[in-house]
Design brief:
Strand order of the largest sheet: 7-8-9-10
Strand content: 15-25%
Helix content: 10-25%
Number of helices: 5
Radius of gyration: 20 Å
Largest sheet: 4 strands, antiparallel
Number of strands: 11
Length: 242
């Protein structure tokens, strides 16, 4: 209730931070202000704000999204500079894998919850660019894992000399959106997003079951404990009761 009452600005369609002294909204637009979209407190009236701000290439949706502040912010800097000095942990524009993990989930959760094709597309785009960014020159044989990246060219913060700083959940995003696994209280939803690539997951342990899911580009199969529970020529959502 407090987030909706104090943070949401209906006129600007944005969840702003608030000053803890008087609970008045502050003016900077930060990527973490999209975190409410990861929850069930938002409704369809909030979706235009998500699309207007997060998906705008002139604001957050940079060549390698997501910039940690809007690019039109006066303090935005893609090179990690703040007040004339390059910093180790700048939050004024650099792309952080941790924040990207949160925002990929925010898009994916809203895409499923509100059955929104555009948000499905953008979830795919973000996850693909996110994974490509975490490889030198986009080469899958040269993975890396740096604390933050340049939002324009995807180059890592190699100047820090720290290349083992995950703080993100790339594998989880692949399982949830490429493979489409969504484990609920009563059912297992298998709902792959349109990545356009074949995939296979074998012998995955989930709630005491062994799960196999495969998409060859021509056949979509789901097996539970070795038994085929679903087979189709199309990649489509499928639910299995526990």
């Amino acid at each position: 209730r407090a987030i909706l009452a104090y943070m949401w600005d209906a006129e600007q369609q944005f969840f702003f931070d608030v000053d803890p002294k008087d609970f008045k909204r502050t003016s900077p637009k930060s990527a973490v202000c999209f975190y409410p979209y990861m929850t069930d407190i938002v409704d369809e009236s909030h979706l235009p704000g998500l699309k207007k701000w997060l998906l705008d290439p002139a604001r957050f949706w940079t060549e390698y999204p997501v910039a940690t502040v809007s690019t039109d912010d006066p303090f935005y800097d893609e090179f990690a500079h703040w007040k004339g000095k390059r910093h180790n942990c700048p939050w004024n524009g650099r792309v952080w894998p941790m924040t990207n993990s949160h925002l990929a989930d925010a898009l994916g959760i809203c895409a499923r919850r509100f059955d929104d094709p555009l948000l499905r597309e953008k979830t795919v785009e973000l996850v693909q660019k996110f994974i490509r960014m975490m490889h030198f020159d986009g080469d899958p044989n040269k993975p890396n894992c740096f604390e933050h990246y340049n939002p324009s060219n995807g180059k890592a913060s190699t100047y820090r000399g720290v290349d083992d700083y995950q703080h993100s959940w790339v594998n989880d995003l692949i399982l949830k959106y490429l493979v489409g696994i969504q484990a609920g209280e009563q059912t297992l939803l298998v709902d792959p997003f349109p990545f356009g690539v074949p995939f296979a997951v074998s012998n995955l342990s989930l709630r005491g079951y062994k799960l196999d899911i495969r998409w060859t580009g021509e056949e979509f199969t789901v097996k539970l404990d070795g038994k085929t529970t679903h087979a189709s020529e199309r990649l489509q959502p499928f639910q299995i009761p526990w």
